[in-house]
């Protein structure tokens, strides 16, 4: 056991260089770094870290294998529970999950569980062989949506002997991992690799299939599927309803990031799908999505890229690491400011944004101090591009044809937290479409729980 009080540092690209490329910012541990970090683990008899992992990885066991230099075995241990470890190791908010519970974290920095997970997943990337694919005899399951929720449910069901087909609306699988999170945080090659390994388990992925348009949920049952899992995410952008929101130069973060990631706008002219980015960009919001949009705008040539947020710094919802990376890259933070109007010229292009200054009042329902406008404090921000990153809602396409699936007032699907069961017989749901915009690991946890419940449901119906 090592006496090191701090996490082994993660090597990363220099901020001055990385703002002009889309290569990954963090470079990953070396074998020596990984072993040193693994030796910080106390191998607790009651490993609290595991309570913080929604997909139930046997964390101390995998870390013990890393400490012994048995990296392939460590990867195998993780894969028993998690089919997307190279992804989770990069984007999961470990500081709020396993690492928050780690005993070492009481006095020192917790063990860098996420960085170790990433290291072993990358280590076996090119060498791992998927063995022992189950015969698909237990029944047929349709999964709608190839994001982390759908992929996890599909992999877990294939592993126990189901014939699984995923129907995905886009021309690539991965959900937000592919179209939302930028290349410099999560290379698409990594996503493709982990999706390919799920296909090797026997899962079929039908791309360009929008359920609700091409087929209704009822038709999936008519096609012989015994159960349906809905993991359609929350991809419908929200706007503020401001004057000027329809001007040229106003995007939703969703559209902006999809154009860059999925349509590869950052590789124009090799890909013939450019995206317009002006010189001065304001991104409204302060979550991970906002940080991604602001950092992407900078890499696409913006001279100034700003986060505009109506609350204060401590209330910003983005991961601490993402805020730190954004600041190091030169993103400016205009906190306690709320946009009130977007201004344009006679050709319909953005020329500025009116904002009002805010102060913090009493706590609201979320427990955070409510931002209150300061009277007569309006001012004009000199910007030519505005990106809205204020949240997303579930897309209602699938639900229009299946009114029996009950939803909340927010448009999210009502599903049992433990099983994912919806109000429609044989239909289960999980991930952002149930919780609203949340995290990769929460979506995966929901996919895992639903897979278990679907197995029980089908086996129960077959009795
Ligand atoms: P999604 O990933 O949204 O996948 C849903 C899939 O369903 C999509 O592929 C969609 O095309 C498909 N679909 C939708 N409707 C249909 C239909 N009718 N028929 C067929 N297919 C359909 N979380 C983190 O943990 N860490 C981060 O750093 C992080 N950063 C983020 C950055 C951005 C820009 C965004 C947008 C989100 C981020 N998140 C992050 C949140 C995280 O990505 C989501 O919580 C997670 O992807 C939700 O998974 P899901 O499977 O429920 O949905
Ligand atoms: Fe290791 Fe921390 Fe888990 Fe204990 S809680 S087993 S120290 S990772």
UniProtKB/TrEMBL annotation:
Domain named Dihydroprymidine dehydrogenase: residues: 18-127
Top-rank lineage group of the source organism: Bacteria
A molecular-function term among this protein's GO annotations: iron-sulfur cluster binding
Alphabetical list of SUPFAM superfamilies matching this protein: alpha-helical ferredoxin, Nucleotide-binding domain
PANTHER family per UniProt: GLUTAMATE SYNTHASE [NADPH] SMALL CHAIN, GLUTAMATE SYNTHASE [NADPH] SMALL CHAIN-RELATED
NCBIfam families: gltA
Protein name: Sulfide dehydrogenase (Flavoprotein) subunit SudA
Organism field: Orenia marismortui
